[in-house]
Design goal:
It is a single chain. Strands 1-2-3-4-5-6-7-8-9-10-11-12 form a 12-stranded antiparallel barrel. The chain has a single domain, classed as Porin. The protein has 255 residues and is mainly beta.
């Protein structure tokens, strides 16, 4: 999750799109952010989801100091949890808010990112969840980098269960100074012992599952503007429902 080539890393690890952590210098405060327009919001390969409502605006803002950072990431979503829980839908409910704290360090040319994310949706009950994860980024050649990530949910929520685990592996190849190609795959372990299992959206039918594989191309138009094209080869969700293949296009302004 380190700008430009690594924008895809955070999406693979946290399920977010185009957020970035500050490239903080030692004992200095750094601030950066982004605004992204995507053709569809696909979270962790869920191409058949209420989130998918067409063109979506997303944004992030990050503050870093030394090896620590704090990031806010937000997105429009295509549904209201208030409505899913029997209430009347409001347009103000259709937003996702992510608050991320992290610590980054290097060891023998390998970068480690230990992060904790709090996910919040307004308009309903039991909608705040917390997830902790570790992302490892390792160069394997002059132009190639391997990124692996594993994370686990720490509490039960209306849409996730404590112990749910998500893992991803991606290979990023720098074609030119402005263009990169990424290949990725992800899987999950789901528990069916959560507090809200069988209520609302949680209907766990499988424990260990293939989530998706993907290919993505990123191109920087200038220092602040970039575009990407991504294709998802759909896997399965926790209910063992096959996810269709889907292309996603995006435009990002970074500052």
């Amino acid at each position: 999750m380190y700008k430009k080539l690594s924008l895809f890393t955070l999406m693979m690890s946290c399920g977010l799109a185009n957020a970035s952590s500050p490239e903080a210098q030692e004992n200095q405060i750094s601030v950066n952010g982004s605004l992204t327009i995507v053709s569809d919001y696909v979270s962790r390969g869920l191409t058949k989801s209420l989130d998918n409502e067409g063109v979506t605006l997303q944004g992030s803002l990050s503050i870093g100091y030394d090896k620590f950072y704090a990031t806010y990431w937000g997105s429009q979503i295509g549904f209201s949890f208030r409505e899913l829980q029997g209430g009347e839908a409001r347009s103000s409910d259709k937003f996702e808010h992510n608050f991320i704290l992290g610590y980054i360090w290097d060891y023998k040319n390998v970068a480690f990112d230990l992060w904790d994310a709090t996910y919040y949706y307004q308009g309903g009950d039991h909608l705040t969840s917390n997830e902790i994860g570790l992302t490892v980024t390792a160069p394997i050649s002059e132009k190639g980098t391997i990124v692996s990530s594993t994370s686990v949910y720490l509490n039960d929520a209306y849409y996730m269960s404590k112990g749910d685990t998500y893992s991803s592996l991606s290979y990023v190849y720098k074609l030119t100074d402005a263009t990169s190609l990424t290949l990725g795959v992800a899987g999950s372990y789901f528990t069916d012992r959560g507090k809200y299992e069988g209520h609302g959206v949680l209907d766990t039918q499988t424990d260990l599952t293939y989530r998706f594989s993907t290919i993505r191309a990123d191109h920087s138009l200038n220092d602040n503007l970039g575009v990407f094209a991504q294709y998802y080869f759909g896997g399965y969700d926790r209910s063992d429902i096959k996810q269709p293949n889907k292309p996603v296009l995006g435009l990002t302004y970074s500052f």
